[in-house]
Write a structure and sequence with these properties.
- About 15% of the residues lie in helices and about 55% in strands.
- Strands 1, 2, 3, 4, 5, 6, 7 and 8 form an 8-stranded antiparallel beta sheet that branches.
């Protein structure tokens, strides 16, 4: 299942950070993101997937992996840098990532 997302690769995310849009999905291979470029975070490289509230405005997932940090959130609508975040789908994407991290899998 694919999710429409905004994403940012870097160490921190703020309201002034420029984000890009894309489509993300999770499968046995890892986290896939198709946007301005193709991003693959292999399952073995995933370290954590934590959810937090960005300035009380919406849920954002912080993905730690072997090559850095990635922020992403599922969006309902995105016009330029303005995004309406899908609260429940962002939680579902984070749950998919946590299941991928589970050693019992």
């Amino acid at each position: 299942m694919g999710y429409k997302v905004f994403l940012h690769q870097g160490d921190e995310l703020s309201l002034k950070t420029r984000v890009v849009r894309g489509e993300a999905w999770v499968d046995e291979g890892g986290l896939h993101i198709k946007g301005p470029g193709e991003i693959l975070v292999p399952r073995a490289d995933l370290r954590s997937a934590e959810i937090f509230r960005l300035h009380g405005l919406g849920r954002v997932i912080r993905v730690e992996h072997a090559n850095g940090r990635l922020f992403l959130s599922v969006v309902r609508l995105m016009i330029g840098q303005f995004a309406i975040i899908n609260f429940f789908k962002t939680g579902a994407l984070q749950a998919d990532l946590v299941r991928l991290l589970s050693p019992n899998r």
